């Protein structure tokens, strides 16, 4: 069975070593990088299953590394950063991260989040493989096995969490999902303060689907309740 490999990219060597030690105890293999250029090269030369990226790295910051990873790869990405404001967190999620952890951090919390993201990612992939039929609605086509989405023939680049949210809603059209329910099913953990995280992902998902200018929205807001797929 293939061992899971995690990329740790942080210019603080001590932090990267600490994360590696805790992840090794969980049975994960790790690849470390101390600047953005080496992080991107690691993704190109290793089979990476999840990436933990510092934002403020030399040569290339975590935002740009994420942008380039997303062009070719579909893996969970966790930002680990000293930037702690709500605006920083929202910006990180909008730029393609699946999660955002601030420094200083509890290594065990990081490990728990890594486990949750990998578990949900693998479960979604397995469910998609079992549900081979594609989903189509109003020019939108979802290919579960490949985890890709096209809109009127144009490929839409989604992060893993954006895909998971869209696929969840599309599989059950007209069913209303609360923010808490979406968080629990897509992130796979207990619901604490995940409301903003869900809403930020749905906002960016809608923008990628062109719903900021479209009158016929695929993702409909049911005020005070949640969201539904408007098939």
From TrEMBL:
Keyword Transcription: yes
Annotated keywords: DNA-binding, Phosphoprotein, Transcription, Transcription regulation, Two-component regulatory system
Domain OmpR/PhoB-type: 132-231
Residues of the Response regulatory domain: 5-118
CDD domains for the chain: REC_OmpR (cd17574), trans_reg_C (cd00383)
Primary site of residence: cytoplasm
Superkingdom assignment: Bacteria
Keyword Phosphoprotein: yes
Subcellular location per the Swiss-Prot or TrEMBL entry: Cytoplasm
Pfam families the record matches: Response_reg, Trans_reg_C
DNA-binding residue intervals: 132-231
GO CC annotations, alphabetized: cytosol; protein-DNA complex
GO biological process: regulation of DNA-templated transcription
Name of the molecule in the record: DNA-binding response regulator
């Amino acid at each position: 069975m293939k061992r899971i490999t995690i990329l740790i990219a942080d210019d603080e060597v001590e932090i990267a070593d600490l994360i590696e030690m805790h992840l090794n105890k969980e049975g994960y293999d790790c690849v470390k990088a101390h600047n953005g250029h080496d992080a991107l090269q690691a993704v190109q030369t290793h089979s990476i299953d999840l990436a933990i990226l510092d934002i403020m790295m030399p040569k290339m910051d975590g935002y740009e590394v994420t942008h380039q990873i997303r062009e070719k790869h579909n893996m969970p990405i966790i930002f680990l950063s000293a930037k702690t404001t709500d605006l920083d967190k929202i910006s990180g999620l909008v730029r393609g991260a699946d999660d955002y952890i601030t420094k200083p951090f509890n290594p065990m919390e990081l490990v728990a989040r890594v486990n949750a993201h990998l578990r949900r990612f693998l479960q979604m992939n397995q469910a998609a493989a079992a549900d081979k039929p594609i989903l189509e609605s109003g020019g939108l086509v979802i290919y579960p096995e490949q985890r890709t989405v096209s809109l009127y023939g144009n490929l839409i680049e989604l992060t893993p969490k954006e895909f998971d949210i869209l696929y969840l809603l599309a599989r059950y059209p007209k069913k209303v999902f609360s923010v808490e329910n979406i968080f629990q099913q897509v992130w796979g953990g207990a619901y604490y303060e995940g409301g903003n995280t869900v809403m930020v992902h749905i906002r960016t998902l809608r923008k990628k689907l062109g719903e900021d200018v479209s009158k016929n929205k695929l993702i409909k807001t049911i005020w005070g309740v949640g969201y539904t797929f408007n098939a």
